[in-house]
Amino acid sequence: MDSAPRNPVTAVIVVAAGSGQRLGYGMPKAKVPLGGDTILTHALRGVAAAGIAQQICVAIPPGDQELLALCDDFAQALKAEHPGTPGTGGAGQPPIVTIVDGGATRAESVRAALAALLPATEAVLVHDAARALTPEAVFHRVSHALAAGALAVIPAIPVVDTVKTVEPTTGDGAAIAPELVTGTAARETLRAVQTPQGFDLATLRRAHEAAASFDDGQAAAVTDDAMLVELLGVPVHAVRGASQSLKITTPLDLIIAEGLLEGPLGVRWVEG
Ligand code: CTP
Ligand code: MG
Q1: What is the pLDDT, as a whole number, of residue 272?
Q2: How far is CA 205 from CA 105, 208, 269, in A?
Q3: Would you call 198 exposed, middle or buried from its count of C-beta atoms within 10 A (0-12, 13-18, 19+)?
Q4: Is the CB of 237 under 6 A from ligand 1?
């Protein structure tokens, strides 16, 4: 039997439906300017440049006409660049771009996008629009692991800080400091996790179906898709991420992202 790796039919979900509270621009983060474009434009370009997707499915804030138009323009530009038939997956064929209304939480936005994938889809990468500068190499590492048989794969980087656990100080100690250290994590085993996270589609669908019945507390604790797959007991593999794949969350992150774009190397060409 032929066991050579085979590229599964792949969709990339880009979740861009968040409100960007911590960035504080008073507009959805996807629309915030970065290097003369928007955060979402950079994210979509990165996905397209990686060339791994037959479909790109973008979740945007419901009813946001500006982001709808931005995604439409992006789809038209892809078609103009690649004159082939969208979604067929051959060399030079552009991906189909699908736009869905996101939900109230990131997980709901992912679920909305999962419901809109083409029937032939076998594998899916879920990517945060907020990680607008993810290098192509990271997409490739994730999709190679899927082709090699992983059901779940995440990009991750070593943690540079020492990480401790704490609890609120009680009794007399409260006058000294608000928290008391309860332990120090073994740093060499810790990883900071990024996106795109890649999955066998059936596995991710099963994980999200299980999560749909979570109560509010459980739902709030879900910060990535791999966590849901871990709860199913499915092994999650980790490949190397990239530091320039930072999630633009606070104003400081935006300054760093601007700096990366202005830097002499040009972020897209720096190997992660
Ligand atoms: N996201 C989404 N739908 C939501 C919430 C978040 O699609 N209901 C997306 C964001 O657009 C972002 C990614 O999930 O690309 C990671 O979320 P985060 O960085 O927290 O973005 P926001 O939720 O927009 O920011 P904040 O939490 O500061 O409001
Ligand atoms: Mg958020």
Answers
A1: 52
A2: 17, 5, 34
A3: buried
A4: no
* 103 pocket-lining for ligand 1 (C-beta < 6 Å): yes
Which ligand gives the minimal distance to the CA of 104? 1
Q: How far is the CA of 20 from the centre of ligand 2 (A)?
A: 7
- Cβ density class 157-185: b for 16+ within 10 Å, e for less: beeeeeeeeeeeeeeeeeeeeeeeeeeee
Number of domains in the chain: 1
Q: Which atom of ligand 1 is nearest to the CA of 30?
A: 11
CB 199 within 8 A of CB 152: yes
- What residues make up the domain containing 141? 10-269
Going from the Cα of 88 to the center of ligand 2, the distance in angstroms, rounded, reads: 34
**Residue 229 pLDDT:** 97
Q: What is the position in ligand 1's atom list of the atom closest to the CA of 18?
A: 24
CATH number of the domain encompassing residue 31: 3.90.550.10
Q: Is 156 inside a domain boundary?
A: yes
Mean pLDDT by 10 residues, the chain (272 residues): 75 98 97 96 97 97 98 95 74 87 96 98 98 97 98 97 96 91 97 98 97 90 95 97 96 95 66 53
195 CA from centroid of ligand 2 (Å): 14
